[in-house]
Amino acid sequence: MPQVKFIEFNGTEHNIDANNGDSIMVTATSNLVPGIDADCGGECSCATCHVLVGSEWQAKLKPVNDTEESMLDLNPDRSAESRLSCQIIMSDHLDGIVINLPEFQY
Amino acid sequence: MSGIVIIGAGQAAGQAAASLRQGKYEGSITILGNETQPPYQRPPLSKQYLSGELGMDRVMVRPEKFYADQDIALHTGTSVESIDRAAKSVTTSSSDSYEYDKLLIATGSRPRILTIPGSDLSGIHYLRTIDDVDGIREAMKTAKKICIVGGGYIGLEVTAVAVTAGLQVTVLEMEDRILKRVTTPEMSEYYHQLHAGRGADIKVSTGVNGFQGESHVSTVLCGDEQIDADLVIVGIGIIPNIELAEAAGLNCNNGITVDDHCRTSDPDIYAAGDCTNHPNPTMGRRLRLESVPNAMEQARVSVTNMLGGDKVYDSIPWFWSDQYDLKLQMLGFSADGDTSVLRGDKAANQFAVFYLKDGKVVSVDAVNSPKEFMVCKQLYGKTVDPSVLKDTNVELKTLLN
Questions:
Q1: Which of A92, B235, B352, B354 could form a disulfide with B366 if both were Cys (CB 3.0 to 4.6 A apart)?
Q2: Alpha-carbon distance A41 to B295, whole Å?
Q3: Which of B254, B271, B306 is at the close of a domain?
Q4: Closest chain B residue to A39 measured between Cα atoms?
Q5: Are residues B141 and B223 in the same domain?
Q6: In the predicted model, is pLDDT for residue B252 greater than 80?
Q7: Is B252 helix (H, G, I), strand (E, B) or coil?
Q8: Interval A78-93: pLDDT, tens
């Protein structure tokens, strides 16, 4: 089982065993990790599952597609590390991935 | 043992239970739901679940083991018969009683049912639950001609899935245009042309007065016209489930009446989701919404307030609908506008219609234009220059300053 380290905005860490095939969003909500609303349930429709992923892990992810880019673009907290966590699917090669949670979802 | 009892096991219920544990509530949590599944997401039912793209495990609000892991007592297949406010308990149809300190009513809504000649024939389906959709999926394997009664979002989403699966589809809409209750003539026309172009036969101003068939439906009767169909799916609206609340003497008026803290007329009883009629402070009026974001956020607000917080529910309603390869995202109500501004290209299926009232943005319908949808969230209530808004050479971000 690959592990995900979620770090809340206040620094609290959550180390979670993820199921392969689950999104980072599902991994968080299934384990009561706070800070991800995920109102649309993972359809890339709401942008309330915004997370920050460092460049060393970004390199292992599928690049941001057009829809995700548009949803992220206007987020006031947008940075080069921004992703929508419903679009990141866990697998063994992401074992150990570190996900930083923003202060707010919009 | 008292604690928090949740009536209903839909998305509001699942979210509320999770939010209670996230809020460090350590008392007992009991969910009583009359369906057989744990809380699941309804939006995919008429979309990716119907098409087979998403399986059951992908539509669950939380994995099934979540409830046991979090010490949440999830009783599925359990109907609540009554609420005794004096004793602060609820009783189920099997005569089990559950006492509560705080109660959340999240009973949702149910489809409006047709009661016309032949409406009890087999082959006539409604779409609200996983069981409903499992039945429709099974029927679609052998169906040749599908008739959709009602040109609302449910009907049109099913139409898109069925047309994509190669089935012959007729849509019957009683009003003079599809989506009349929820959108403008301009958007109705766009979606009419979209479906017609993909091969669906859309008949507006066409009411259904009966069905015929031996035991299974074979014909839909609309005035003088007869339409062959071996599968009928009816999507003519929903009715909020308020009967339990009404019987308990809670104020109801087109939904269970709640205040801006999601509290009913009994301070120990909250309500969330489709079943509520709630005030929207920003819009300055009461609303009853059929919407998942509404259910989720009302659940969160109810929980915060149950646990002693002071949180007002004040969100601008938003909705989405996936049909074919088009993602429609809507914010606010287009009917609130006095002016519309088109941005983008309808022919390219990528455009947004913004609606303004007295020069202020009040709504958007965005087709394959998530950026326009997102910007509207932030432009809501702000004055914008329509000539700038429609100019696709102007970056939307610049309007936010």
A1: B352
A2: 12
A3: B306
A4: B293
A5: yes
A6: yes
A7: strand
A8: 999 999 999 999 999 9
pLDDT at A105: 86
CB atoms A45 and B369 under 8 Å: no
Q: What is the pLDDT of residues B381-398, one digit of tens each?
A: 999 999 999 999 998 888
Mean pLDDT of the region B230-240: 97
Using a CB–CB cutoff of 8 Å, tell me whether A67 touches chain B: yes
Query: What residues have CB less than 8 Å from B10, skipping those under 6 apart?
Result: B33, B39, B40, B42, B106, B108, B273, B295
Give the whole-angstrom CA distance, residue A63 versus residue B126. Answer: 40
Which two three-digit tokens encode residue B297?
Answer: 């956020």
Domain coverage including residue B72:
3-110+238-306
Asked if B339 and B355 count as a contact pair (C-beta separation under 8 A), the reply is yes
Tokens 């991800």 belong to A36
B358 vs B362: CA distance, rounded Å = 10
> Taking 80 as the threshold, does the pLDDT of residue A99 lie above it?
yes
Domains of chain A as residue ranges with CATH = 3-100 (3.10.20.30)
Chain A: closest CA distance from residue B70 (Å): 9
Q: Which residues contact B3 (CB under 8 A, 6 or more apart)?
A: B27, B28, B29, B30, B99, B100, B101
